[in-house]
Amino acid sequence: MSLGRGADEPRETTSFDRAWKFHLGEAIGADQSLFDDATWRALDIPHDWMIEGVPGANPATMDGPFDKNSPAGAGGGYLDGGIGWYRKTFTLPASSKGKHVAILFDGAYMNSQVWLNGKLLGNRPYGFSSFYYDLTSNAHFGDEKNVLAVRLDVEQPCCRWYSGAGLYRDVWLITTEPIHVAQWGTYITTPKATTTGADVRIQTKVRNDGSAPGEAVLTVRLLDADGKEVGHQKATKSVTPGEDTLFDQTISLSTAKLWSPDSPILYHAIVEVRVNGILTDTTTTPFGIRSFIFTKDKGFFLNGQHVQIKGVCDHADLGCLGSVASYRGYERQLQILKSMGCNALRTSHNPPAPELLDLCDQMGFLVMDEAFDEWKVNHHKYGYAESFDQWSEPDLVTLINRDRNHPSVILWSIGNEIPEGHHGKPEAGPLATRLVAICHREDPTRPVTSACASPVRVWKSGLAPALDVFGVNYSPFYYEKNNPSPTAPPNPKDGDYDGHLPMFGSETSSQVDSRGEYGLKLDDQGNVQIDPKPNFQVSSYDTWHPGWAYSAETDLLNLKNAPWMAGEFVWTGFDYIGEPTPYEWPSRSSYFGMLDLCGFPKDRFYIYKSQWSDEPMVHILPMSWTWPGFEGKAIPVRVFTNADSVELFLNGTSLGSKNYPADCADQTLIIDNKDKTQSTIKSPGIHLAWDVPYAPGVLKAIAKKDGKVVATEEVHTAGAPASITLTPDRTKVVANGQDLSFIKVAILDKDGNVCPNADNEIEFSVNGSAASLAGVDNGDATNHESFQGTQHKAFHGLALAVLRSHYDTTGDVTVTASSTGLPSVMTTIQVVAP
User: Fold this and answer.
1) Cβ count near 389 (within 10 Å)
2) How far apart are CA 355 and CA 327, in angstroms?
3) Cα 345 vs. chain centroid, distance in angstroms?
4) Is 785 designated active site?
5) What pLDDT score does 4 carry?
């Protein structure tokens, strides 16, 4: 697959994802060209071998793909790493001889070593960094074959969450003339950005990998969103062999359309390099015209307008797909977040896949781009500490140079909960100062932050004062305490913050719950009680959270009361594999998400939607009105809305109307203390509440604004399972080997209601050669069925099957779901040419 703009252009960027060989385990000699890999598994990348389930050392400790004794532990989701080899045999056309040939890896997890034709090209310990190598001097051209070999070693425990393992992001072959634009050599900024005029500065490094000097003529053309040229400029400089030459040009526009989350308008810069009148390179760089500032007293401003950062943190895995980078997988997640009113994303806690940032540009998300989870002190035995001294600068420079043209990126984060700062160590300040200086050197236009737990100690350590913007984790009461008068001059005392820097919630709430779990039970007196942690699940009534955390409602209210705060990034948007707080085995994935591992909304999703979205909405908690044995008992009902009032009805009878926010109820929280005792506290709420004597039927909420009905929602009592439905999010995908259709599976009663207690085992089969099953799941953190299998139980009536297209094969593909006692059901996905 070529990304060039035409066959007559000199730069060719070709996908190198197809036709690899893979071997799990050590393979002595596999770095050499003549090594026999005939028995190795043939596959395409991106690929994550960890999600498939590596056999553990002791079969007795394995349950499906999960290994109770995995060195990754609960943090890594009980999935094992190990050593893996990839090899690719390929030819380069004779016409490429004399050109510059490079290989670009978007990411390889982890401890990568790369060889070409038996020669070691280099190594990269950090599995989240992009990197590239020059192949020119050791490549064969014409009919002689080349062999690229990659060895990866995932030593565990290496990460606080599920990392994945393998060539899990794209690989690219880049062929240019010897005089060309350097890798990540274009840097675009907009020092002036208004609708009535903008200055676009384009700094371009031209690399001469030839043996002779030359005169390079560099032309920049700017295209608007409609493809119309709106400006151009030309410059000439001498280029010396083996060196980069910097061209610095500014093009002024008389009018401009500004990039923002509500209007993510992109321009394109076409850079052309000519030597002796011959075009030697051309690149296209999308960019946005926008300005922003973080203030100490009024928050964040974009293009002169106040914008509240309504963000989430997310890890890199895509649930049942593992850590495999997927354009469509990321796009689906962002679409769901956008529907909630979310406008920002934190790439927790590492450099993201490039296509995720492309999508944030296109869809309108503000991004906190994060480099590290640790510096010289590890969270785990095989963490980043051993690499920090040698690799922290190259890794940080790579991140910034790769990502600095993205208008979505508004913050560089040099770390998350860095132990040196968290524990108040004096070395934290100098280390932070060094990293901040690197960021400022590579990109002076963006502020630098860090996500700081224990903000008092982090400030005193010197880490926080080195930052441009202070990111604080899990400290909602710190907001107001440290900004009693945000317009007053800064007055640091005893190491306290006291409004010295702009501030935002870099990681907030950390509430946990399970989709569809409520924990309702009857006590000895027959009264309804809420069990906050039933059977390795967590109640969606949000009555319990970890000791460091706060409920969503508490955190939202504290943020509202601190208008100088720029906003927040909630932990997390989606559940992810690993960190199954508050449990360990058998739980293997998190409970933190507003959405479960399948991307199905939990009740908490609607709390944030009621606060973040202007779209009229109302939501009833619980999402189930099927409570046999609770007849006549008072079920606690909560309602979330952004309307003025809500009236609740049971079977057509009004249960009264309540005004929002005047009639909002407090919530009772149970907190686990460090001494393993528990505390019960009252916390302010942003929900309306009723106690409703249970009777089967229909519970209905009607929301009004200015006296008019703007939203309604109903929950129905469900009967016995009677059917399965399959609902694909897309019925047409392209035959590019990576496109996906996410198929929602629901167990329904005879009236079409989801059966909230259904856990039917579902078998999936695929008929058609143009696609295959990529993953299955149900959102249950305790389920040990394979993500890569063909069967999965429903969880509270729902499950998910993901279909992936094949390369170059089109046609209809039929997915069938079967379950004992229910009629089989089919859906058809059309696979079309790209």
Assistant:
1) 10
2) 6
3) 7
4) no
5) 35
Q: How many CB atoms neighbour CB 750 within 10 A?
A: 11
Phi, psi angles (nearest 5°) of residue 823? -65, 140
Please state, rounded to an integer, the average pLDDT across all residues of the chain.
95
Contact 156, 382 (CB under 8 A): yes
Structure tokens given for 87: 């090899």
Q: Which residues of the chain have pLDDT under 70?
A: 1-8, 482-495, 671-676
User: SS in 3 state form for 729-783?
Assistant: CCCEEECECCCEEEEEEEEECCCCCECCCCCCEEEEEEECCCEEEEEEECCCCCC
747: β partners: 724
Q: Which residue has the tokens 């050593």?
A: 83
Query: Could you say which of 507, 553, 579, 785 is catalytic?
Result: 507
Token look-up 């093009």 returns 251
Q: Which two tokens stand for residue 773?
A: 């099953």
User: Residues near 624 by Cβ (< 8 Å), separated by ≥ 6?
Assistant: 516, 518, 715, 718, 756, 757, 796
Which among 177, 355, 374, 417 is annotated as catalytic? 417
Predicted pLDDT of residue 677: 72
pLDDT at 674: 62
**What pLDDT does 2 receive?**
32
507 among known catalytic residues:
yes
User: What per-residue confidence (pLDDT) applies to 519?
Assistant: 97
Distance CA 789, CA 200 (A): 51
Is the peptide bond prior to 455 cis by the omega test (within 30 degrees of 0)?
no
| DSSP-derived 3-state class of residue 87 | strand
Question: 783: buried, middle or exposed (CB in 10 Å: 19+, 13-18, 0-12)?
Answer: buried
CA distance 365 to 344: 5
The per-residue pLDDT for range 601-637, each reduced to its tens digit, is 999 999 999 999 999 999 999 999 999 999 999 999 9
